[in-house]
Amino acid sequence: MINLENPRKFSALVSQAHQVAAEIFRPNSRKYDRAEHSYPKELDMLAALLDGMNAAGGDSGGAGAAGVRRDSKDAGAGNRNGSNLSTVLGVMELCWGDVGLLLSMPRQGLGNSAIASVANDEQLQRFKGRWAAMAITEPHCGSDSAAIRTSARLDGDHYVLNGEKIFVTSGERAELVVVWATLDKSAGRAAIKSFVVERNTPGFELVRLEHKLGIRASDTAQFALVNCRVPRENLLGDARIDVEKGFGGVMQTFDNTRPLVAGMAVGVARACLEETRKLLEQAGVKIDYERPALCQHAAAAEFLKMEADYEAARLLTLQAAWMADNRKPNSLEASMAKAKAGRSCVDIALKCVELCGSIGYAENELLEKWARDAKILDIFEGTQQIQLLIVARRLLGKSSAELR
Ligand SMILES: Cc1cc2nc3c(=O)[nH]c(=O)nc-3n(C[C@H](O)[C@H](O)[C@H](O)COP(=O)(O)OP(=O)(O)OC[C@H]3O[C@@H](n4cnc5c(N)ncnc54)[C@H](O)[C@@H]3O)c2cc1C
Q1: At 261, phi and psi to the nearest 5?
Q2: 39 burial type by CB count under 10 A (0-12 exposed, 13-18 middle, 19+ buried)
Q3: Residue 46 pLDDT more than 90?
Q4: What's the confidence (pLDDT) of residue 109?
Q5: Measuring from atom 7 of ligand 1, which residue has the nearest CA?
Q6: What is the CATH number of the domain that holds 118?
Q7: How many whole angstroms separate alpha carbon 387 and alpha carbon 379?
Q8: Are 121 and 260 found together in one domain?
Q9: Beta-bridge mates of residue 175
Q10: Which of 99, 212, 213, 301 is most buried by its number of CB atoms within 10 A?
């Protein structure tokens, strides 16, 4: 029988994450939305707490983005609820509080997930406890990550990196940046590898920070790499160019990070729904689960539709994370979850603003902020359209060359 409740072993972690979201994120939400680019110093004490939560998670992982990993001990362990699931559950709770602040959490960057996903044991140990951002996007390449131009050339014990990276979340604040670069442009996707670059490496220059629609608590940086020398052992995973394997190595990161971003969207959507329910009830609109939607107030009927989308997004997200924990190939499910959660979050946030009228649009409540924050969750780690393309390719058995 299917049990749709959260695994009991994660309940302490989820309730701790909720407490952080309610007592630290929510009260500081508006402050850092207004003070764009200033570091939320309240997060420093939280970092220690989160480290504790990750440690306490033991083999079941923790609350932050660094928790995701497919350990070989997961193989054949039966039905396992591990670090991917616990991380996604923690992220959902924290983003119910504030997604911009979650993205600003020290040591919980998407680069940390990349390291957790593809690093070998030695690298995992070496980069443990460091804050890592992720730099894939370039001025000429976003959705089509195979078109990366940043180059990496082996020179003695170092790779020499040259190129440009844009829209790097936490780029200014993180200590490390996981940079995607190609070892040989003529070899196509298989030559794209990820390199861990220390922020203070000569030749790794911060160009500017972006002003944004939403997630303003989170810094978004542009970098230039000019003859930036990175130790050879900082290449994550296998240095060989394996044309058979193609993009497999680096793309594996997305199978773990897309459910995380879907989890962020689920958290924001729940925040919007809860606030809207409260405001509707204050206006005398009750949501009745005993009667068909069409027999209820129009606002209640809309609410029920949104809740159905929210539940579908949540379950797809948990499924994708659970599959990662159980070492099942989950690229299809990770993209389905990201597509459904990203779109639902944007639709729900805007509809909630609409249903709540001027209260939803004004700055006295957080609904207008959540509507702005929501959009990025349907863009980064692969846009809505790209997720649907991946789903179509997988279902139809087409390659990226056949269906683009
Ligand atoms: C706030 C913010 C934070 C970010 N953080 C990071 C980060 O930490 N690291 C990082 O590497 N990147 C980051 N990004 C970049 C993000 O991942 C890219 O913006 C995204 O992948 C889209 O790429 P693009 O902007 O170049 O758009 P494009 O790829 O140019 O796409 C433009 C539009 O065309 C659509 N499109 C493109 N190709 C197709 C197709 N084949 N079929 C149908 N539609 C298509 C897209 O869906 C999109 O709607 C961030 C972006 C933002 C805005």
Answers
A1: -65, -35
A2: middle
A3: no
A4: 85
A5: 168
A6: 1.10.540.10
A7: 10
A8: no
A9: none
A10: 99
Contact 360, 367 (CB under 8 A): yes
Neighbours of 186 (CB within 10 A): 6
Amino acid at 374: A
- SS3 of residue 128 by DSSP: coil
Helical (H) or strand (E) element with 180 = strand 176-182
- What is the spatial distance between Cα 361 and Cα 367, in angstroms, rounded to a whole number? 7
The atom number, within ligand 1, closest to the CA of 110 reads 8
Separation of alpha carbons 326 and 334, rounded Å: 14
Tens digits of residue pLDDT in 116-147: 888 899 999 999 989 999 999 999 999 998 89
Residues 387 and 353 in one domain: yes
Q: Is 372 helix (H, G, I), strand (E, B) or coil?
A: helix
Tokens of 303: 């609410």
DSSP state of 235: B
What CATH number does residue 218 fall under?
A: 2.40.110.10
* Number of structural domains the chain divides into: 3
Identify whether 381 is a catalytic site residue: yes
Last-in-domain residue among 201, 236, 271:
236
CA atoms of 82 and 59, how far apart (whole Å):
7
Going by C-alpha positions, the residue among 64, 61, 24 that lies closest to residue 40 is 24
**What is the DSSP-derived secondary structure letter of residue 338?**
H
Comparing 2-16, 218-232, 303-317, 386-400, the range with the smallest average pLDDT is 2-16
Residues lining ligand 1, Cβ inside 6 A: 110, 133-137, 142-143, 167-169, 212, 220, 376, 379-380, 383, 385-386, 389, 404
Pocket test of ligand 1: the residue of 180, 383, 399 to mutate, having most ligand atoms within 8 Å of its CB, is 383
Q: Count CB neighbours of 274 within 10 A.
A: 12
Q: Are strands 132-135 and 158-169 parallel, antiparallel or unpaired?
A: unpaired
**pTM for the whole thing?**
0.94
Range of the domain at 189: 132-236
How much distance in Å is there from the Cα of 254 to the middle of ligand 1? 14
- Compute CA distances 60 → 63, 80, 82, 88, whole Å: 10, 9, 4, 12
14 lies in the same domain as 96: yes
Task: Indicate the residue among 91, 126, 161 that finishes a domain.
Answer: 126
Residue 75 has pLDDT above 80, yes or no: no
